[in-house]
Amino acid sequence: MARTRTTQKRSVASLLELKVVAIGNSRGVRLPKKLLERHAIRDAVVLEEREDGLLLHSKKDRRLSWEETFKDMAGEREDWRDLDVTLADGLEHEPW
Predict the structure, then answer these.
(1) 16/29 Cα distance (integer angstroms)
(2) pLDDT tens digits for 79-89?
(3) Taking the CB of residue 53, how many other CB atoms lie within 10 A of it?
(4) Separation CA 19–CA 27 (nearest Å)
(5) pLDDT recorded at residue 67
């Protein structure tokens, strides 16, 4: 019986050094066309300042932040009463 090989697409972080250039009275960076296309960036980007650096993303990127995710989950009013049963099932001690 032949085995089929499955491949998983891995997220690969890449570094790209960009020059800061004069743009009128301001300064900015130019983003490569392929990068803009890959991330669906058309006429504007959102710049998010974070503790560990800057994050650029498309305006259409609607992934929730951790804070938004928490608020969304809290609004669902889910029933977590069976969580203790799940935690006590002993599976965390099973060698995988």
Answers:
(1) 12
(2) 777 777 777 77
(3) 7
(4) 10
(5) 82
Which regions in the chain score pLDDT beneath 50?
1-10
What local confidence, expressed as pLDDT, does residue 65 receive? Answer: 76
* Residue 23: per-residue pLDDT: 92
**What residues does each domain of the chain span?**
20-79
Q: Which amino acid is at 44?
A: A
Burial readout 57-89 (b: 16 or more C-beta within 10 A, e: otherwise)? eeeeeeeeeeeeeeeeeeeeeeeeeeeeeeeee
**SS3 at position 58:** strand
Q: Is the dihedral of CA 25, 30, 33, 38 positive or negative?
A: negative
How many angstroms separate the CA atoms of 48 and 65, rounded?
A: 11
Residue 25 zone, left/alpha/beta (φ > 0; ψ -120 to 50; rest):
alpha
pLDDT at 63: 65
